[in-house]
Amino acid sequence: MNRTVPRLAACSLAAVVLLAAFPTTLRGQSVDAAALDAAIAGAHRGDANRARDRYRHLKETLEFFGLRPDMTVVEIWPGGGWYAEVLAPVLRERGRLYVAQYGSSPPFPYQQREMDTLAGKMRAAPDVYRSVTPTALNFFSNELAIAPPGTADLVVTFRNVHNWFQEGYGPPNGPELAFRAMFAALKPGGVLGVVDHRWPDPKTEDPGARNGYVSEERVIEYAERAGFELAGRSDVNRNPRDTHDYPEGVWTLPPDLALGDQDRAKYLAIGESDRLTLKFVKPQ
């Protein structure tokens, strides 16, 4: 449910906490900034998606996760393909992109609409998306093979973890299943990158994530339970104007603006949500 925040001047790439014992595969990563710039500027991207770049900091986020053009990457629940339209051209010459969609029988109509949108993009620009292979992550139908086991260098998921705690998206152990699937897909030394709407206090967060927020502590708990080690945090997607207390949860803020014209200027001034950005590694 891919539902982002004026840039903080001091946080162009704020990797705040880095663990001392990085695997060599993580320490030696070299991001191709030119390839990212070209993909972001690509003519295949629409104006509506470009307008959100300033909130979502996609270049800084993908640099923080260590994206390289020669990687095998999995994007979990890519929705209509906002990130995939940048990942695909970066990877099309030397890499591979698996888009783990909602599966053969998605539980919500919006999910099918998003899959149709991404399929339309792929048909319209086959050369841009030639590195892309659709897979699935669906808890109800047990579609959990997001990529061949042990083949991915990088798995990314943007604003999806909170959904796995919500009613209707899967069984009670859905979060465990998701993190296990991501762990299984990665090579030893591979990276998991997570972005989601940040709840500031784990003691007060909603266990069912009905407001759309999840705490860093909770994400870390589930990732470590699956076998991951925390490798870093970034403040690149933090938004201090987000007060986290809205009538319609996080969807009160743009881009959804769930209240319509009610207090619209107020919520536009806040911007998109305060977001956690976490990097994990699968041990060698």
Q: Could you characterize the architecture of this molecule?
A:
The structure is a single chain. The protein has a single domain, classed as Vaccinia Virus protein VP39 (Rossmann fold), CATH 3.40.50. It is 30% helix and 20% strand. Strands 1, 2, 3, 4, 5, 6, 7, 8 and 9 form a nine-stranded mixed beta sheet that branches.
User: How many independent structural domains?
Assistant: 1
| Proportion in helices | 25-40%
**Average pLDDT rating:** 91
Question: What is the architecture at the second tier of CATH?
Answer: 3-Layer(aba) Sandwich
Low-confidence stretches: 1-29
Structural class: alpha/beta
Q: Give the C-alpha Rg.
A: 18 Å
Per the principal axes of the C-alpha atoms, what is the gross shape? globular
The CATH superfamily label reads Vaccinia Virus protein VP39
Give me the CATH fold name.
Answer: Rossmann fold
Annotation, overall tally of beta strands: 9
Strand content: 15-25%
Tell me the series of helices and strands, N- to C-terminal.
EHHHHHEHEHEEHHEEHEHE
**Major sheet: size, sense and barrel closure?**
9 strands, mixed
N-to-C terminal Cα separation, in Å?
Answer: 32 Å
* Name of the level-1 CATH class: Alpha Beta
Number of helices: 11
Describe, in short, the structure shown.
It contains eleven helices and nine strands. It has helices at residues 24-27, 33-40, 47-50, 53-56, 58-65, 84-91, 109-124, 161-164, 174-185, 216-226, 264-270, and strands at 15-18, 72-76, 96-101, 132-136, 152-158, 186-199, 214-215, 229-234, 275-281.
